């Protein structure tokens, strides 16, 4: 259950800490009893020049960011997801929780307006996937890998060119979309709808053309997404998976064995693409670059999805699918190293297969001695 709060910066004691996130180009604010607030900057947590937070002080700071409904949920369950919009500073996605009996909170900075795919530097295949008339596209990766930003850019691409109804179901709403060519309705769990199941069942009566499901969390969510995609809607969603093969396996594993064959066939028919993301520190120290594995559902990939005996070949299909816009993480990391965006050492830390990545670098003409020099502690 989530809810949103919009408030003036001057009314919140947390405001200076949130401002520090923005000023320092950070991504997250961490609040914990016994230590100073910390801001995640380029992947690392950096303490602010502030006094350590006491239990009573932090309890008051966090609870004043909540609506009455969120506060009631937090008191009942010791955790809550919600959105916080602070005038003059920005919008944040918050998660409050208790740790060893004391309150803690992490707030992530999210954009008020979506950034276009062009501004994000996304390859053309991402825009092509966003403008599919029907089917399912998944954006995956760990928490903090930029999935929300990519999905917001994809929704914006549709909003700019297609006169359709876009319906989003989010937990909570992060990026605000305003009508352009499309009509956009955004629904938030806890504020606009009771739960995912209710919202997804109601969605079919709201005449959507495009449906964004904030996250595929269980078999019911996946089943509803596949059903919508199979009946002519275009569906986008996320999963916390690391690559295309794991994404397929995770979806299948949501279901009991006697349903898995049918799910495989449905996924093979409706899937349009999988975009997997990881963030890597930039070589110049200015933020992080996104490394992407992109799988497009060609006939060969669809066969690998449908046949459990062939699912292990998905990585090879992606590696050989450059003509269709596909690429593996390691292939993209080599490109990022060659153009100077990221260092070899940082790229190796997030590579899928360190040995294969090193071999690809050597084939690309990178001196093996340089690889060893950068990756030696």
Main attributes of the structure:
single chain; 377 residues; alpha/beta; 7-stranded mixed sheet; 15 helices; 38% helix; 25% strand; globular
Q: What is the spatial order of strands in the main beta sheet?
A: 1-5-6-7-2-3-4
**Biggest sheet architecture:** 7 strands, mixed
Shape: globular
Give me the Rg, rounded.
22 Å
Q: Which residues form runs of ≥5 with pLDDT under 50?
A: none
Helical content band:
25-40%
Number of strands: 14
Q: What is the terminal separation in angstroms? A: 45 Å
Percent of residues in β-strands: 15-25%
Please provide the ordered H/E string of secondary-structure elements.
Answer: EHEEEHHEEEHEHEEHEHEHHEEHHHHHH
Overall mean pLDDT stands at 91
Total helices: the number is: 15
Family: Belongs to the GSP E family.
Pfam families: T2SSE
Protein name: Type IV pilus twitching motility protein PilT
């Amino acid at each position: 259950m989530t809810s949103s709060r919009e408030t003036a910066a001057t009314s919140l004691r947390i405001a200076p800490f949130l401002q520090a996130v923005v000023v320092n180009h950070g991504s997250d604010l961490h609040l914990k009893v016994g230590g100073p607030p910390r801001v995640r900057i380029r992947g690392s947590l950096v303490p602010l020049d502030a006094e350590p937070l006491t239990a009573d002080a932090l309890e008051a700071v966090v609870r004043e960011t909540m609506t009455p409904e969120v506060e009631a949920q937090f008191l009942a369950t010791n955790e809550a997801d919600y959105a916080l919009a602070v005038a003059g500073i920005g919008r944040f996605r918050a998660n409050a929780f208790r740790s060893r009996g004391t309150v803690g909170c992490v707030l992530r900075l999210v954009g008020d307006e979506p950034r276009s795919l062009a501004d994000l530097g996304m390859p053309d295949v991402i825009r092509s996937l966003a403008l599919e008339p029907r089917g399912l596209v998944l954006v995956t990766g760990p928490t903090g890998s930029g999935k929300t930003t990519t999905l917001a850019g994809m929704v914006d691409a549709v909003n700019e060119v297609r006169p359709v109804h876009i319906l989003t179901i989010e937990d909570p709403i992060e990026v605000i979309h305003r009508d352009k060519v499309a009509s956009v309705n955004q629904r938030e769990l806890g504020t606009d709808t009771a739960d995912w199941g209710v919202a997804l069942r109601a969605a079919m009566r709201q005449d959507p053309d495009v449906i964004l499901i904030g996250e595929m969390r269980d078999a019911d969510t996946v089943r509803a997404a596949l059903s919508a995609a199979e009946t002519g809607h275009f569906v986008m969603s996320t999963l916390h998976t690391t690559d295309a093969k794991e994404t397929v396996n995770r979806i299948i594993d949501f279901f009991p064995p006697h349903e898995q064959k049918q799910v495989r066939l449905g996924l093979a028919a409706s899937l349009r693409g999988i975009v997997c993301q990881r963030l890597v520190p930039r070589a110049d120290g200015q933020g992080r670059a996104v490394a992407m594995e992109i799988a497009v559902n060609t006939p060969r990939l669809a066969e690998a999805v449908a046949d459990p005996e062939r699912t292990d070949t998905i990585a090879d299909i992606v590696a050989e699918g450059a003509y269709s816009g596909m690429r593996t993480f390691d292939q993209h990391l080599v490109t990022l190293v060659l153009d100077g965006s990221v260092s070899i050492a940082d790229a190796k830390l997030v590579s899928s297969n360190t040995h294969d990545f090193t071999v690809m670098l050597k084939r690309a003409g990178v001196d093996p001695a340089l690889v060893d020099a950068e990756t030696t502690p």
